[in-house]
Amino acid sequence: MKTSDFTATLLVDQTPEQAFGAITDLRGWWSENIEGGTDQLNDEFTYHYKDIHYCKMKLIELVPGQKVVWLVLDNYFKFTEDKSEWIGTKLVFDIAQKDNQTEIRFTHEGLVPQYECYEVCREAWTHYIYDSLRDLITTGKGQPASKQYDGFDAQHVEKWKLEQ
Predict the structure, then answer these.
(1) What's the chain's Rg over C-alpha atoms?
(2) What's the pLDDT at 34?
């Protein structure tokens, strides 16, 4: 079955358990601007970047070494007309052993091309999954947005606004 949800897949040499540990360390690969728990079932956290993006998520599924799912409870994008985008969507990480490697499949269920934020979000997730999460898994150091400056998001939001 074909889906239009945003999906990204990584293969790494580390174990599924190492990948799982990195995935649940959101401050290590997504943003230092995360408040709350991110690694225990039913944990809730908030993410914010200035007045441009805010979201609240809940960890709803957790299978060590196999799966992590966060549900978006609330979300706000300054740059979209539809203020409900992302609300009710899920961030799903499926982890599986493939031969001598670990496959991580990230799906943002509900993030579809029809969304106003799709291009900006696709570019951001592409960076955070393929660059930052991969680095955290393989080297122990990701490229999360810092508390002081989140140039990736700001740069891409400005580019997106200019293209509209």
Answers:
(1) 15
(2) 94
